[in-house]
Amino acid sequence: MTARVCFATAGVALLLAALVALCSGRYAIGPLALFASLGHDGDITTRAVLLQARLPRLVASVGIGAALSVSGAAFQAVFRNPLVSPDLLGVLSGSAFGAAAAILCHATPVTIQLATFAGGCCAVGCGFCIARLVGSEGILPLLLGGLISAALFTALLSLLKYLADPFDTLPAIIYWLLGSLAQTRWPELAVIMPILCLVMGALWIGGRLLDVLGLSDDEAHSLGLPIGAMRWGVLLLATALGALTVSLAGMIGWIGLLVPHIARLLVGPDHRLLLPFSAMLGAVCLTLADTAARTLSPSEMPLGMMTELFGALGFIFVLRRLRREGSL
Amino acid sequence: MTASDPPLSRDPPLPDGASLPGSAPGLSAEALSLFRSGRAVLRACSFTLGAETPVAVLGANGAGKTSLLRVLLGLERPASGTVRLGGRALTELSRPMRARAMAYVPQYREKPPGFTVFQIVAQGRFPHGGLYRALSPRDRDEVEAALDIMTLSALRDRPCNTLSGGEYQRVLLARAVAQKTDILVLDEPLAALDYGHQRRFMALLSALAREGRLVIMTIHQPDLAFRHARRILLMQDGRLVADGPPERVLDSATLGAFWGVPLRHHDIGRDRFYTDPEEIR
């Protein structure tokens, strides 16, 4: 398949997924009623459901799916490893810890979001510091630093859960950890979406840089490239993307690992194509997953659980394809 | 031997001068020392490289050959001593400046997944500004020329992970050629190649050297080094123990003492072979 066909297909898929997401739910809206409600004499209830509940959720799922996938593709480029995801440097564990700490203190939703972002940055900073202690060059110290930091913050999270009130804050923490888009509203989207778009755009413009991150340090230096600085820059941007998504929607696993793989199988490893295609594919996947999460059962299922379920199953298929192509 | 082989590799440069630019690129090392975890890896290595090219660096495993190349390229800072490139200390030159003067073909490693031959060779244009913008027509010409020299044009759109070891080694050399540097540094370029590819690869390197490039390589085969190199550096325990033309350094007495095995050499035409004197009566 040529790249153009892939992009066109993904575009159509994204439109269809958006339509399905807007129409389905407990208050079902037919496609015709959907367009009619946008006119001046549209049904007020339909309009309210669309503009206040479904549309912000759609925007959030598109943005978060895209951001997680782009972040995952960038991480995979830096670590030359197809099995890494945005959580590698501990951003998700750190964010979860931050959120849990804020919930434990009965903080307001905005404070919880800020604490989430701060926790993610804290964990990644911790990972970088450990990497510096272990060694200064190459990617192995970073990998180890991230692993240790993630383990550290997971342990701290467990401690918070242990300390939490089992009837009040513990359920809140656990529900939050499962990940959900149910809480997304326009005001916070208006702040975070532009930032997500900017960071993704920056990574896309630097797509050529991502291509060469697979070189060894010696090769890159002998080609005159400041590979260390490039690697850190890309990691910072990709980490910011991950932390922002967590602050919006909690822990949503697997998208960042799986989607870049599927995208690479379809459009190849060139990041100038891979990043936008991953973004589109991630948006489709998360939109569909979120629609399924809120429509399959009478009460809403956790989105993080849905993505993990489908992601884990999908990964079997991707691994088989990768092995057959000899790239794993 | 193929018809395209160089003339007697130890002959003086051809007088026509067309293939040899006037100023030979100079690379010199002054008393280079390097320590790794307290162990001396390089000990006071000094030499000046220039007109005699290719230069072959021979030595046992762990003798410091790769470290020497890395220090020459500026990938590692020596504990003491200076590397000079065209008379200027390497530390005064920015990384892109070095990359426009010296290209490096590292030891064989895993092939990167997915990227095509053309994309890998085009990486050689980064030091000329090719990273932050699209390839210019001139960049494309240089890449095509490099593909052509390495007879890779037919493979240009193949993903690198479908290539054989010999083909991939040629891709890496083509990238170094596309870098358009006066100096080419290769670390055991023959390691992953079968004998036929080794001979073809050495002929390619000789051809590049005849164009006036300073080619520096580590190698383990004394017969191929004798046939193609014009200067030999022999290393032992981080020290330069011999430095000179192949017929002097690569004789059976020096090499036999160096490796601690009895050796006798036989010159046949322009080639030199080594045998065990106790087996051949």
What is the structure about, briefly put?
Chain B: Keywords: ATP-binding, Nucleotide-binding, Translocase, Transport. The complex is a heterodimer of chains A (328) and B (281). Chain A has 328 residues and is an all-alpha fold.
Describe the structure.
- The complex is a heterodimer of chains A (328) and B (281).
- Chain A has 328 residues and is mainly alpha-helical.
- Chain A has one domain (3-11, 30-36, 43-324): ABC transporter involved in vitamin B12 uptake, BtuC, CATH 1.10.3470.
- Helix content of chain A is 77%, strand content 0%.
- Chain A has 14 helices and no strands.
- Chain A has helices at 3-23, 31-37, 44-79, 91-104, 109-134, 140-163, 169-178, 186-205, 207-212, 217-222, 227-249, 255-267, 271-295, 303-324.
- The mean pLDDT of chain A is 87.
- Chain B is α/β, with parallel strands linked by helices and 281 residues long.
- Among the domains of chain B are: 52-73 and 103-245, Rossmann fold (3-Layer(aba) Sandwich); 251-281, no CATH class.
- Chain B has helices spanning 65-73, 95-101, 117-122, 137-149, 165-178, 195-210, 222-228, 246-249, 252-259, and strands spanning 27-36, 39-49, 55-59, 80-85, 88-89, 102-105, 183-186, 214-218, 231-236, 239-244, 264-268, 271-275.
- In chain B, the strands form 3 sheets. A 6-stranded mixed sheet of chain B has the order 6-7-8-3-9-10, sandwiched between helices. A 4-stranded antiparallel sheet of chain B has the order 2-1-4-5, covered by helices on one side. A two-stranded antiparallel sheet of chain B has the order 11-12.
- In chain B, helix 4 crosses helix 5.
- Chain B is globular.
- The chains are: A mainly alpha (328), B alpha/beta (281).
- At the A-B interface, helix 9 and helix 10 of A face helix 2 and strand 6 of B.
- Chain B: Residues 27-262 form the ABC transporter domain.
- Chain B: Belongs to the ABC transporter superfamily.
- Chain B: Part of the ABC transporter complex HmuTUV involved in hemin import. Responsible for energy coupling to the transport system.
- Chain B: GO terms for molecular function: ATP binding; ATP hydrolysis activity.
- Chain B: It holds the Pfam family ABC_tran.
